[in-house]
């Protein structure tokens, strides 16, 4: 069974991204109509006028640009921690198109904080089963949303890319999602989630902190979703370097030692 390692984690820079549509455009009016159909007329429009209006397709394009050249990816997953502000975008299909090579595409929604853990479990399972060699998991969260009772709107837009494969990196443990508080593994360094209403704060924190952390120290990524009642964690083992290429013994002594 092949090992599944976190080859790369990237918090996608979004500061230079432009709004997908202007606040006074026909696209904005359509967005308002669609939103009122779900939230009711009390939603108003102030939330749209003051927002960034970065849609999931915008985040996907920014992620693909920021990632640069990649080894072949044959499985692409998106995990949306919030609804998109537009209903006509297909972020998973767009990600598959931008990656090239016709990867299998899956999307995870409606799971809040648990979505990234579910996506990692599916990706790792497909790799271990031999159905894929390398997977890109893209976590998406956008803040262009009306106020809703009981829902904490994210303070900012965010996207985090997680590349899984057989190369160098930290081996991924089994992602765990439960309804009761979990006993996390002992001896691992905890990565504390960023807050500000974010449901992917554990992963933005990991992307920021990972370069400075001891590569020989196991890491614990843990987060709770108080709205949905999920408790989640996953263990990342110490960093494994690039596996040495297999060398065929050249003489009888080497063959005996092998």
From TrEMBL:
Disordered: annotated segments: 239-258
GO molecular function: acyltransferase activity, transferring groups other than amino-acyl groups
Name assigned to this protein: Beta-ketoacyl synthase N-terminal domain-containing protein
The organism of origin for this protein: Kitasatospora setae (strain ATCC 33774 / DSM 43861 / JCM 3304 / KCC A-0304 / NBRC 14216 / KM-6054)
Lineage, opening ranks: Bacteria, Bacillati, Actinomycetota, Actinomycetes, Kitasatosporales
């Amino acid at each position: 069974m092949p090992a599944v390692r976190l080859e790369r984690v990237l918090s996608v820079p979004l500061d230079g991204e432009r709004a997908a549509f202007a606040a006074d455009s026909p696209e904005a009016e359509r967005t308002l109509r669609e939103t009122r159909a779900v939230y009711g007329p009390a939603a108003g429009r102030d939330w749209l006028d003051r927002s960034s209006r970065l849609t999931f397709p915008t985040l996907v394009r920014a992620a693909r640009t920021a990632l640069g050249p990649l080894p072949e990816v044959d499985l692409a997953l998106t995990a949306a921690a919030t609804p998109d502000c537009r209903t006509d975008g297909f972020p998973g299909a767009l990600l598959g198109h931008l990656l090239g090579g016709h990867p299998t595409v899956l999307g995870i929604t409606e799971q809040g904080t648990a979505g990234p853990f579910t996506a990692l479990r599916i990706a790792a399972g497909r790799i271990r089963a031999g159905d894929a060699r390398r997977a890109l998991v893209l976590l998406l969260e956008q803040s262009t949303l009306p106020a809703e009772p009981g829902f904490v709107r994210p303070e900012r837009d965010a996207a985090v890319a997680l590349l899984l494969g057989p190369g160098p990196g930290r081996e991924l443990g089994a992602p765990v999602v439960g309804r009761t508080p979990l006993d996390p593994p002992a001896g691992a360094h905890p990565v504390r989630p960023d807050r500000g209403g974010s449901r992917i704060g554990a992963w933005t924190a990991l992307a920021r902190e990972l370069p400075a952390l001891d590569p020989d120290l196991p890491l614990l990524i843990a987060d709770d979703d108080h709205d949905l009642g999920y408790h989640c964690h996953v263990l990342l083992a110490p960093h494994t370097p690039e596996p040495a290429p297999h060398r065929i013994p050249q003489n009888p002594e080497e063959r005996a030692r092998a």
